[in-house]
């Protein structure tokens, strides 16, 4: 207080006069505004209470009328001669007509009722219940008698049971003895009223509002509500008989929401009708009125104090203009706030927000860098764009010549089964960190173009087109680290160096092509251009052609030609491949092709051989043993087995057709072309093909090509674009659409997570 007086004493007369004038002018207006707001809020609450009572009276009238109508209906039915006759006669087969007549009478009465109901007619003597309810709501004799015992009706009076799904009934039940002169000893009529039909009556009164209308029984439990979630809720303040209700507050909190509450005790049944309106809506209306009131207060106050505050506003104008420029999007500055403190808080908030944005950007930076490197590898950026991104993300690629190194897992199916999701990402990250450690201070940005593969861009100043020996040595060391620490082998392809950023894509494609030479070089190798020549490439192509020729001859039973081709294949292998693992891979692949072709005509290779041919293959110690095993056992056994089976002429034709497809699937095949090739009419070819393969030609060709695509995706690093071209698709889009329709997933995703075999 002393400080305030001290400050006031230091003010100039002008400031003192301004403050005194403002207080004197606005005090009466503020008092009037407070009183007006209070009176308006009180008036609004009284209006809400009045509307509540009006709605509750209307609900009581409707529910009383409804229940009274149901009671009158039960009396008419219980005293109906047909029902009395049916109860006395019993429910036996001999009295079926009387039972059906009783059912018809009840259904007819239901059709004239203001609310639809189902029924149960209990024959106590026969221990039988006649009902048209669903199985879920059907009552048993035991349930009916237990409800009668529990409610203890006086003489032949009716009683009502509230819905209780926990006890096996979800309907409102009205009980009446049949005949009316009995005391629930012969028969019992039960009317089932669906809760949803009752809810309609409650819902109509609260349509277009946020109010809740509840019907509460004497135990305080909600028996009816427009919101089914409220049914069964316990309202403790309504526990007890209606004439002994506790004092019920005007305000009530339910599920964390505050309500304005009104209630009305039923004059007909043991119910209490409750209406609750959320205080939030009332508060909004009250706030709106209060805002209008204070707006008038502000206008009047402004007229009174206009001249007194004019001078002080001019002094405050510089700070005010700065705040208005800073608080973009804010309708108004709080009238009683300290401008300097608000400005300080605003600057602090902007600084904090900027720091958070920078932290988020730093967290995402590695992923953005990966995306940029991948786009460079795939040739999706221009030279100018690449330079901009390198500068922006500080990728460190400042040279003019670049190598591309691709590290690829040798056994990808096993890798994909062992490592999934985040584990696979961690493996890729571990390989990248190993590269970073081996490179030292030289920046070598990495990316993961596809699962199981890490690509590295290495800048160099060497003008020679051959790979630098230091890089090859580093890659050998990397392979050793991966094998020792990660327990799987990889092969690494090193491209030739090329000038310019846009040629990085060509280097990447070259590295991918080099990886395919693992067929002849084996796995866990470092491959460079120096190790591969045109002769090696030609050898690989020759091996593949010989494999297909051998499979075709064996399928057609021409063992002499098959053996000759096998001798040529072995000669090619002995002259070019020194790795036993690569040799076993060649023969394993050939057996796979043979098994596939046999399966297309209904045979299984392992069943023919009575053994696992792949395991048997790996038991052979020398290539000569493999040749003898194939010539003397596998090929003759297949021929003998096929010859023992009665192969029709048309099956042989189709076998030749299937062999032709397997050798020429890369070309543009058509059914007409096949018919011309085998000198058969188009219609006959179509019919025979369908009979022998249970597929149309187009379906078979699609399946064959899709299986080839699947094989290449899983077991090779061939780009999807090249796979599409190999399978005679005009573009990648058409191939991707066909692959997704066939397998349910795009080819890129399939390569990343192939299904387990």
Commentary on this structure:
This protein has 757 residues and is an alpha+beta fold. The chain is 60% helix and 12% strand. The chain is built from 27 helices and 16 strands. The strands form 3 sheets. Strands 11, 12, 13, 14, 15 and 16 form a 6-stranded mixed sheet that branches. A 5-stranded antiparallel sheet has the order 2-1-5-4-3, sandwiched between helices. Strands 7-6-10-9-8 form a 5-stranded antiparallel sheet. A hairpin with a 2-residue loop joins strand 8 and strand 9. Helix 2 packs antiparallel against helix 7, helix 3 packs antiparallel against helix 4 and helix 8 packs across helix 9. The longest helix is centred in the N-terminal third of the chain and has 66 residues. The chain is flat, with a radius of gyration of 45 Å. This is AraC-like DNA-binding protein. Pfam families: GGDEF_2, HTH_18. Keywords: DNA-binding, Membrane, Transcription, Transcription regulation, Transmembrane, Transmembrane helix.
């Amino acid at each position: 207080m002393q400080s305030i007086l001290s400050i006031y004493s230091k003010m100039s007369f002008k400031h003192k006069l301004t403050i005194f004038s403002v207080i004197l002018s606005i005090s009466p207006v503020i008092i009037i505004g407070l009183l007006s707001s209070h009176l308006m809020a009180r008036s609004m609450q009284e209006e809400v209470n009045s509307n509540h009572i009006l709605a509750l009276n209307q609900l009581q009238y409707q529910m009383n009328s409804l229940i009274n109508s149901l009671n009158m209906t039960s009396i008419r039915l219980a005293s109906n001669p047909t029902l009395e006759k049916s109860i006395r006669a019993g429910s036996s087969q001999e009295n079926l007509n009387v039972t059906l007549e009783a059912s018809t009478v009840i259904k007819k009465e239901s059709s004239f009722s203001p609310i639809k109901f189902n029924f149960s007619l209990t024959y106590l003597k026969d221990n039988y219940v006649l009902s048209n309810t669903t199985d879920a709501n059907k009552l048993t004799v035991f349930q009916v008698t237990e409800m009668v015992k529990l409610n203890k009706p006086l003489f032949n009076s009716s009683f009502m049971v509230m819905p209780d799904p926990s006890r096996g009934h979800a309907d409102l039940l009205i009980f009446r003895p049949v005949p009316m002169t009995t005391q629930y000893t012969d028969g019992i009529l039960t009317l089932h009223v669906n809760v949803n039909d009752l809810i309609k009556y409650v819902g109509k009164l609260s349509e277009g509002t946020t109010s809740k209308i509840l019907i509460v029984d004497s135990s305080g439990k909600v028996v009816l509500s427009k919101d089914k979630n409220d049914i069964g809720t316990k309202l403790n303040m309504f526990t007890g008989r209606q004439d002994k209700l506790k004092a019920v507050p005007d305000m009530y909190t339910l599920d964390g929401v505050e309500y304005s509450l009104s209630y009305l005790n039923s004059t007909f049944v043991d119910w209490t009708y409750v209406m609750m309106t959320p205080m939030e809506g009332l508060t909004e209306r009250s706030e709106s009125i209060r805002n209008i009131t204070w707006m008038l207060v502000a206008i009047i106050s402004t007229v009174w104090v206009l001249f007194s505050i004019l001078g002080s506003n001019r002094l405050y104008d510089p700070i005010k203009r700065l705040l208005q420029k800073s608080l973009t999007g804010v309708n108004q500055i709080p009238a009683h706030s300290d401008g300097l403190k608000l400005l300080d808080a605003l600057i602090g908030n902007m600084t904090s927000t900027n720091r958070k944005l920078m932290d988020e950007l730093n967290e995402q930076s590695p992923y953005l860098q990966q995306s940029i490197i991948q786009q460079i590898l795939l040739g999706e950026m221009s030279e100018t764009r690449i330079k901009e991104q390198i500068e922006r993300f500080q990728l460190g690629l400042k040279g003019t010549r670049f190598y591309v190194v691709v590290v690829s897992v040798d056994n990808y199916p096993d890798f994909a089964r062992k490592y999934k999701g985040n584990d696979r990402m961690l493996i890729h990250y571990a390989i990248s960190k190993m590269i970073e450690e081996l490179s030292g201070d030289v920046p070598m940005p990495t990316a993961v173009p596809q699962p199981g593969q890490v690509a590295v861009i290495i800048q160099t100043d060497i003008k020679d087109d051959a790979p630098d020996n230091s890089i090859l040595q580093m890659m050998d060391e990397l392979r050793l680290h991966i094998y020792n620490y990660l327990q799987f082998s990889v092969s690494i392809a090193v491209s030739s160096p090329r000038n310019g950023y846009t040629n990085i894509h060509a280097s990447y494609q070259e590295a991918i092509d080099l990886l395919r030479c693992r067929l002849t070089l084996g796995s866990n190798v470092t491959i460079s251009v120096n190790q591969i020549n045109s002769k090696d490439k030609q050898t690989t192509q020759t091996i593949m052609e010989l494999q297909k020729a051998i499979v075709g001859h064996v399928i057609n039973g021409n063992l002499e030609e098959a053996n000759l081709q096998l001798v040529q294949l072995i000669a090619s292998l002995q002259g070019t491949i020194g790795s036993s693992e690569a040799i076993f891979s060649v023969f394993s692949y050939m057996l796979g092709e043979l098994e596939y072709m046999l399966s297309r005509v209904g045979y299984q290779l392992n069943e023919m051989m009575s053994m696992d041919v792949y395991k048997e293959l790996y038991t052979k110690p020398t290539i000569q043993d493999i040749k003898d095993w194939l010539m003397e056992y596998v090929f003759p056994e297949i021929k003998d087995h096929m010859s023992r089976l009665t192969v029709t002429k048309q099956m042989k034709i189709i076998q030749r057709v299937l062999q032709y497809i397997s050798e020429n699937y890369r070309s543009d095949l058509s059914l007409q072309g096949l018919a011309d090739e085998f000198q058969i009419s188009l219609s006959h070819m179509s019919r025979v093909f369908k009979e022998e393969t249970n597929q149309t030609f187009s379906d078979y060709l699609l399946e064959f090509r899709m299986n080839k695509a699947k094989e290449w995706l899983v077991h090779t690093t061939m780009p999807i674009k090249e796979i599409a071209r190999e399978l005679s698709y005009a573009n990648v889009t058409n191939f991707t659409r066909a692959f997704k329709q066939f397998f349910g997933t795009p080819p890129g995703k399939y390569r990343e997570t192939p299904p387990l075999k």
